[in-house]
Design goal:
By secondary structure, this protein is of the alpha/beta class. It folds into three domains: 1-68, Arc Repressor Mutant, subunit A (Orthogonal Bundle), CATH 1.10.10; 86-156 and 271-299, Periplasmic binding protein-like II (D-Maltodextrin-Binding Protein, domain 2), CATH 3.40.190.10; 161-270, 3-Layer(aba) Sandwich (D-Maltodextrin-Binding Protein, domain 2). The protein contains ten helices and 15 strands. The strands form four sheets. Strands 7, 8, 11, 12, 13 and 14 form a six-stranded mixed sheet that branches. The chain has a five-stranded mixed sheet with strand order 4-3-5-15-6. Strand 9 and strand 10 (210-214) form a beta hairpin.
Length: 299
C-alpha cells in the first residue's frame, strides 16, 4: 500500500474536497484524485462519496480515517522533532477560530507573532459552529470557556473581559425614542444574528442583579462572519438597534455614528481561550505560539 495514497485520502477527507486539499497541500487536484482512486481500487472499497458540491467519507472511509488520523499525527510529531535542530521553528500553524476572534483577538496577536517567527506560516479557518479542531486538521482553536472540549489545555488569549454592547444611530433614536429598559426593545426594530445551525441567540442584559433575556424581532437577520458587517452598516444607516461585541462597534461608538443605549445593562463576560490537545509533544509552530502568548501575558 502506497503511503502517499493513504496521505492523499486523509487530506481530501479532512478538507472535504479535492480542490481545498490540493490548495492546502500545494499539489494538483487531479493527482489527489488519481491517488484516491488507486487506493480504492487496491482495497476494493469506495472510500469517498463524490458529488459536484462536496466530498464525504463513506462508512468504510470514516473508519479508515479514524484509524489513520492518529498515525499520521504521530508521524508528523516525529518529523517535527527535527525542528529542535533549527535556530528558529518552521512549519504551518493552523487555527480554527470564530469570526468574533478573527476580528477582535487575532489582529493584535498574529502580526507580532509572524514578525517574531518569520519561518512559520499561519492558516486561519473561520468557523462559528462548534467543531472538533483535530478532526478537521487544525492544531488549535479559539473558543470561549463554555465551549471548551474536555482533555484540552486552555490558554487565555486576547482581552480578558468583553461586553455585549447595544446601540443605534442617533437619527433612529430621535425618530423611535431611546429605550430606558431592555424590554422596551420589543417595540424597536432589532438587527438579529443567527448561528449556522439556525438558532438565534437571545439578547441578555444584566443590571443590579436583574437579568433580562429577550428575543426581539426586526427587519434584518444575518449569520456570523462577513454578514456581521452588513448588520453594523444597517445600524449606522438607521435601520435599527444592534446588539454585538463592544469591540466590533467601538469605532462607530467613538465616531458618534452609533449611540450607546442601555449601557448600564451591558453584560460582561470572560475573554476567549486558545485550546489545544494536552499531549506531551506539541508541533514546533504551536509550541512557539503558546510560548509567545505566555510571554505576552507576563509582559
Amino acid at each position: 500500500m502506497e503511503l502517499n495514497d493513504l496521505a492523499a485520502f486523509v487530506s481530501v477527507a479532512r478538507a472535504g474536497g479535492f480542490r481545498d486539499a490540493a490548495r492546502i497541500g500545494g499539489v494538483s487536484p487531479s493527482s489527489l484524485s488519481i491517488a484516491v482512486r488507486r487506493l480504492e481500487a487496491k482495497l476494493g472499497l469506495r472510500l469517498l462519496n463524490r458529488t459536484t458540491r462536496s466530498v464525504a467519507p463513506t462508512e468504510a472511509g470514516s473508519r479508515l480515517l479514524d484509524t489513520l488520523t492518529p498515525l499520521f499525527s504521530e508521524m508528523e510529531a516525529a518529523l517535527d522533532v527535527l525542528n529542535g535542530f533549527r535556530e528558529t521553528p518552521t512549519g504551518t500553524l493552523k487555527l480554527n477560530v470564530p469570526s468574533s476572534a478573527a476580528r477582535i483577538v487575532l489582529p493584535g496577536v498574529i502580526a507580532p507573532f509572524l514578525k517574531a517567527y518569520p519561518d512559520i506560516r499561519v492558516e486561519v479557518v473561520v468557523e462559528d459552529g462548534f467543531v472538533d479542531v483535530l478532526s478537521i486538521g487544525c492544531d488549535a482553536g479559539i473558543r470561549y470557556d463554555e465551549k471548551l472540549e474536555q482533555d484540552m489545555i486552555a490558554l487565555p488569549i486576547g482581552p480578558r473581559l468583553q461586553r455585549f454592547a447595544t446601540a443605534a444611530s442617533p437619527a433612529y433614536l430621535d425618530a423611535r425614542g431611546r429605550p430606558g429598559h431592555p424590554r422596551d426593545l420589543l417595540d424597536h426594530a432589532c438587527l438579529r444574528g443567527q448561528f449556522a445551525g439556525g438558532a438565534m441567540p437571545t439578547w441578555i442584559f444584566e443590571h443590579d442583579g436583574e437579568v433580562v433575556r429577550l428575543d426581539p424581532s426586526g427587519p434584518l437577520l444575518v449569520r456570523p462572519g462577513a454578514a456581521i458587517d452588513l448588520a453594523v452598516s444597517a445600524a449606522v444607516a438607521g435601520v435599527g438597534v444592534i446588539h454585538l461585541f463592544e469591540d466590533m462597534l467601538r469605532a462607530h461608538l467613538d465616531s458618534g455614528a452609533l449611540e450607546p443605549i442601555l449601557e448600564p445593562w451591558w453584560q460582561p463576560f470572560s475573554g476567549p481561550f486558545l485550546y489545544y490537545p494536552g499531549r506531551r509533544h506539541l508541533p514546533a509552530p504551536l509550541r512557539a505560539f503558546v510560548d509567545f502568548l505566555k510571554a505576552q501575558e507576563t509582559a
